[in-house]
Amino acid sequence: MKVIVVFGTRPEGIKMAPIVLELKRRPDIETVVAVTGQHREMLDQVLDIFHIVPDYDMNIFKSGQTLTEITVNTMVGLETILDKEKPDLLLVQGDTTSVFAGGMAAFYKQIKVGHVEAGLRSGNLYSPYPEEANRRLTGVLTNFHFAPTEGNRQNLLRENYPDEAIFITGNTVIDALHLAVKDDYVFDNPVLNTIDYSKDVVLLTSHRRENIGVPMANIFRAVRHVVEARENVEVIFPVHLNPKVRAIAQKYLSDHPRIHLIEPLDYLPFSNLMNKVRLVLTDSGGVQEEAPALGKPVLVLREETERMEGIEANTARLIGTDYDAVVANFLELLDNADAYQAMAHAVNPYGDGHAAEKIVDIIIEQMADGSR
Q: pTM of the full predicted structure?
């Protein structure tokens, strides 16, 4: 059996790496890795960390590229690869434009598609944008839906996907995290090595398109207010490369000794930083799954989330982007020990770290069956 694994961004690379490593352990599977290079530098860091050498690199990254360009260039690049390799199955992960374009390219060649992290839904087609549309469109093209949770499975069933094509696996991000975090980790960034993590050190990430502008300004103003109100609080913000994000961060968060605006971190230092801080404020999707695996409460800086399992399990709290709401929730977790401990000790709903193994076992079983 030949399986092509396609991914293009750092989050995809992190979540696909455990699957690639597991596939390569299986002697009866020929594994081909094709990367789009949609995120160039950040993707390369992940490949290096997990010692994955792509068989194909489409290298589509171009500064200022549009979603249309990403879609077209991915499909054109994959068409050549699929014609040459003629795989039995193509695997995509998540909700990026590379995922949808990869699924469409495979569909045009009548190649079966496996969708890792299937069934996430926010309910709003334009938030997150374009990810919500990408994951819905990819579902139509998918033969095997690898759903992290029962809630994801229920989403797919409501959309009339056949139950026998849906498999609950947990999320491979937990597999990757277990490989990455070390208690004795030393950062390359000297700032991170000098911080006293016995204090209330908080990790902030914010980059989503829908938050850029007034929502992000509200978030950053609220964070600064809390830092100024609590002398024991320090904030670490790896600032996204997007110039718009950087401009807002500089306006509201610069020039404070306990707010550290640093360059983006690759996966290893970011994971180990999560392990050291007290809590996390984020609009990221993956962080909502990763931080609870390390016992870190998450305040989700979004109006809606496709990861409701964490909200329901109380590992994360959806607080939106309103200034007063961010201040109030941030202060509560700093000041209310019971509220903090309830979140820190809640059971993470996203899996046990063996998702990749389950996915590969399912692939072998289902492809041998040949009925779908």
A: 0.79
Active-site pick, 12, 57, 117, 290: 117
At residue 65, the pLDDT reads: 86
Helices (H), the chain: 10-25, 40-49, 67-85, 97-108, 131-141, 150-158, 172-180, 190-194, 214-229, 243-253, 267-276, 286-293, 308-313, 323-335, 337-344, 355-369
Residues 6+ apart with CB under 8 A from 234: 195, 196, 199, 200, 201, 202, 227, 258, 259, 260
Cis omega (within 30 of 0) for bond into 128: yes
> Of residues 115, 145, 153, 207, which has the active-site annotation?
207
- What's the pLDDT tens digit per position in 10-54? 889 999 999 999 999 999 999 999 999 877 777 888 899 999 999
- Residue 159's pLDDT is 97
Residue 225 near residue 247, CB atoms below 8 Å: no
Contact in structure between 226 and 327 (CB atoms under 8 Å): yes
The single residue of 22, 57, 131, 283 carrying the catalytic annotation is: 131
Cα separation, 44 vs 135, in Å, equals 24
**Choice among 240, 256, 317, 354 that is catalytic:** 240
Assess whether 207 carries a catalytic annotation: yes
- Long-range own/partner contacts, residues 340-343 (CB < 8 A, 24 or more apart): 340/279, 340/297, 342/314, 343/297, 343/298, 343/314, 343/315, 343/316, 343/317
CA 39 – CA 10 distance, rounded (Å):
7
Four-point Cα dihedral 70, 74, 77, 80, nearest 10: -150
DSSP, collapsed to helix, strand or coil, labels residue 345 as coil
Identify the active-site residue in 209, 230, 256, 317. Answer: 209
Catalytic residue flag (residue 117): yes
Instruction: Give φ, ψ of 145 to 5 degrees.
Output: -100, 110
Angle between helices 172-180 and 10-25 (to 10 degrees): 90
- Residues near 62 by Cβ (< 8 Å), separated by ≥ 6? 69
Tell me the per-residue pLDDT of 267-313, one tens digit each, with 9 for 90 and over: 899 999 999 999 999 999 889 989 999 999 999 999 998 888 899 99
C-beta separation of 127 from 208 below 8 A: no
